[in-house]
Amino acid sequence: MPITKQPGVLAPFPSPAHLASGTAYKVKDGDDWSSIARANGVDAGALIAFNFKTSNPDEINWYLREKVGCRMESPDRDNYKFSSRDVPGIIYIPKVAAPPSPCPYDFSKSFEIEAEEANRTRQQSIEVANRFFRNVGAVGRTGHFIPTIIDTKYWFAKLYEIMTAFEIGAARDYKHPGFVLHFIPVFYGMYNRALDGWAAGGAGVSDLWRKHFEKTGRPETGMMAWSDGVLTSIITGTVAHVRGDMSLALESAYRSYVSKYCLNPAPPFDTYKADFFAMGAVFNQARTAAMSLVASLGPVNEAGVKIGDSLGGGLDINQVEKWRAEAWADAKRRLGQ
Predict the structure, then answer these.
(1) What domain count does the chain have?
(2) Which of these ranges, 64-68, 287-291, 296-300, has the smallest mean pLDDT?
């Protein structure tokens, strides 16, 4: 006859854990711990421990006799075995967690996925800039209408469009191009929402963006006033976007990127820091391109040169980089890193 020993600390059977985390199973002839475990994708030792909270053979025999109702003995008569006649004849099989669903986005293709999104944002930036630009007025020497800026908001919007194009072009050279590209629509979206909010009456528009929108409008005539309008648009827009939006955009981009590609464990936020600060070099490229455009659209060709010279004084690049560093540090703090 099998040796039985009542445990010193008697675990309830069935317990609330059995009922909540297990599935009742009625044993039958031919069953043993190994066959039941194998059929349900669990380890036999873990199956016994889940039921009886012990690995002691004598205590297991006690539970089998007293709680499961086993009466048949194994051929060596050392243990009880399962039978269809056992009453109640119930053990509990732990519920196995379903395997995690495959990530809907393939991280190995993050560059291609994010490049597509970033290029959609670039197209959006073109459309936004064109809201403030019309082919109206006199016919030029080429027989086409002379392009006309109808609102100096155009200049920040156009600089943003140009920068977005340069950022997309440079992304492949970064260590983590997927994140660099993912940041583009997140950041641009904050500018676009501010612009739409202002057009809808200004509710919810931050003070920094309010200053940009209030100080931009119909261009003045004359090189000095016209140039000042361009500078005001670029400077106030850059200040509002970098100082007001960048920290929140970085936090949001990191969270959504990690979630989108199911990165577990999530890489530290600083993984992307070097790429983020390398992006600052794009501004000089974009500024050169923007100043060429200013010269072509200004009242005189010298306007672009004047603005190029003035922009460094009105918008200190070192100060902008300091704001970017502060934005990174603030986003990192809110991420708890």
Answers:
(1) 2
(2) 296-300
Residue 11 domain-assigned (yes or no): no
97-117 exposure pattern, b = at least 16 Cβ within 10 A, e = fewer: eeeeeeeebeeeebbebbbee
Tell whether 199 and 313 lie within a shared domain: yes
99 occurs within a structural domain: no
Block residue for tokens 């003045």: 220
Whole-number Å distance between alpha carbons of 31 and 286:
74
Residue by residue, DSSP assigns 61-79 as HHHIIIII----B-TTSSS
> Residue 162 is part of which domain span?
107-334
59 shares its domain with 146: no
CA 47-53-58 angle, to 5 degrees, is 95
Cβ atoms of 159 and 304 within 8 Å: the answer is no
- Specify the amino acid at residue 138: A
Same domain, 48 and 119: no
Arithmetic mean of pLDDT over the chain: 88
The closest alpha carbon to 296, from 121, 119, 142, belongs to 142
3-class DSSP state for residue 329?
Answer: helix
Per the model's pLDDT, the better-predicted residue between 281 and 112 turns out to be: 112
214 CB-contact burial (10 Å; exposed 0-12 / middle 13-18 / buried 19+): exposed
Q: Quick check: 123 and 154 in contact, CB under 8 A?
A: no
**Nearest in space to 159 (alpha carbons), one of 42, 238, 262:** 238
Determine which helix (DSSP H) or strand (DSSP E) holds 169, and give its type and residue range.
helix 153-170
Could you tell me the pLDDT band of residue 301, with boundaries at 50, 70 and 90? low
- Predicted pLDDT at 315: 63
Tell me what the mean pLDDT of segment 227-234 comes to. Answer: 88
Give pLDDT, residue 303: 54
User: pLDDT at residue 311 above 60?
Assistant: no
Higher pLDDT, 317 or 23: 23
Q: What is the pLDDT of residues 135-153, one digit of tens each?
A: 555 444 445 455 688 899 9
288 part of a folded domain:
yes
Dihedral, CA of residue 213, residue 218, residue 221 and residue 223, to nearest 10: 30
